[in-house]
Amino acid sequence: MIRVFIVDDHPVVIEGIHSLLQHEKDIEWVGHAMNAQSCLGYFVHNTADIILMDINLPDMNGVDLCAVIKEKYPGVFVLGLSTSNQGLYIKKMMENGASGYILKNSSREDVLKAIHAVADGCIYFSGEVGEALKQYQKSAPVALPAISRREREVLGLIAEGYTNPEIAEKLFVSQFTVDSHRKNLIAKLNVKNTAMLIRFAVEHKLV
Amino acid sequence: MIRVFIVDDHPVVIEGIHSLLQHEKDIEWVGHAMNAQSCLGYFVHNTADIILMDINLPDMNGVDLCAVIKEKYPGVFVLGLSTSNQGLYIKKMMENGASGYILKNSSREDVLKAIHAVADGCIYFSGEVGEALKQYQKSAPVALPAISRREREVLGLIAEGYTNPEIAEKLFVSQFTVDSHRKNLIAKLNVKNTAMLIRFAVEHKLV
DNA sequence: GCAAAAATCCCTCTTTCCGGTGATTTTGCG
DNA sequence: CGCAAAATCACCGGAAAGAGGGATTTTTGC
Questions:
Q1: Residue of B nearest to A139 (CA)
Q2: pLDDT tens digit sequence for A44-66
Q3: Of these four, A24, B48, B58, B178, which has the most CB atoms within 10 Å of its CB?
Q4: What residues contact B67, with CB distance under 8 A and at least 6 apart?
Q5: Number of H helices, E strands in chain B
Q6: B168 Cα to chain A: minimum distance (Å)
Q7: Contacts of B192 in chain A (CB under 8 A)
């Protein structure tokens, strides 16, 4: 018996999912909340196996709520639920411990599959969500300015905290050279300073 | 009818999966390869819906093979397959376009569930893999020195390329204050300078 | 209410960064 | 070979960061 709880500020969605699940023999509907606070309130004295969680809530966004839930009750699985198919939020929610993601307009089969997979400890994304996620993950490799081998080498050393003079010594070149590479990197990658350079590099897996 | 191809250098695994799938009515076994080259050779004149792909191959690792396949044949879904339950490789394989991951010692049900989910365009991880992936993703939050709210705020602005004076203006405080926060961050996180600070922050998802 | 933690502010000095503007030498490739 | 890109080196000057001292005032947690 899988106990399901839902958090969503749209009554229509709650009703929809409820009617979709109410005839399932292995699924028990334990309750719902329309905001993060009452959801957390419920879990003080009750529990569930799976929370279907909207990403847009009036008092707290789903990403943060997910983090709080997984922090307090690691055994409760969170299944993201949204109309908007946005890779960024999905990714963040997964990083905060969610077990999957489906769209509100998913088919009955999709919803049931997702619930069962998640209840088994698996991770599940419905098809369209998977597409969005892949697209988001692939945003990096496209249109990256060409960075030369030496520049990448310098970039790596900068990321490790070495200064221009230190890098110059390591590479047996003048510090002017290293400085040139650094400036070229900043120009090529269209960033303002070293901080942004490193952020860009790490996010795009250049280091 | 789901056409399944498998790449694995262990005959035992190929046989195992084969016998596991051969009585499934909606699954067609279209062939197998024991290394990356012959797998790529197969796809020159043939195709499949799903490739079950080992992560350890003699001539090329699964992560790279996955990238090549998805590059040449984006419509073919790759389902990772391994004995080793290593978060890092799983993550890399997913970044290269895989649609899921299962362990070789997964149950018959798990394998079939995964194949069907992936064939539907969904993303699927078997339970143990999900655990490993979460564990890997969660490697960050452990043993992180306590960073105050204000420090995190400053950290975010540094990562966006703002200088101390700029941040001071944004937050309506003195630049000395911002400088203090920056220094405290560098001290707390035990890094040498801003470059390392940002690298650490991005890698540990503080920004 | 009290102590600890956080947030705020201030100063000096040295080093590093960053922008701009050059140049020469080496290397990769058709 | 010859061209283009990469890699190298050089200087200036202002801005910012980093190391080292302090200090005070709010919050916040018991």
A1: B95
A2: 888 899 999 988 888 888 888 88
A3: B178
A4: B96, B97
A5: 10, 6
A6: 17
A7: 161
- The confidence band for A160, taking pLDDT boundaries of 50, 70 and 90, is very high
Partnered with residue B77 across adjacent β-strands are B50
Amino acid at B56: N
Query: How far is Cα B43 from Cα B76, in angstroms, rounded to an integer?
Result: 10
pLDDT at A164 (0 to 100): 95
Q: Sorting pLDDT into bands at 50, 70 and 90, what band is A85?
A: low
- Report which of residues B96 and A30 the model is more confident about: A30
Q: Is A6 helix (H, G, I), strand (E, B) or coil?
A: strand
- Token pair 């797998």 in the structure block, residue: B39
- The residues, any chain, with a CB within 8 Å of residue A6's CB and separated by 6 or more, are A13, A14, A17, A18, A31, A32, A33, A51, A52, A53, A81
Eight-state DSSP code of residue A59: S
Residue whose entry in the numeric block shows the structure tokens 């490799």:
A141
Give me the mean pLDDT over the B24-53 stretch.
91
Q: What is the pLDDT of residue B86?
A: 67
**Residue B194: which nucleotide is closest by CA–C1'?**
D17
B96: CB partners within 8 A, 6+ apart: B63, B64, B66, B67, B70
Q: What's the CA gap between A55 and B18, in Å, rounded?
A: 41
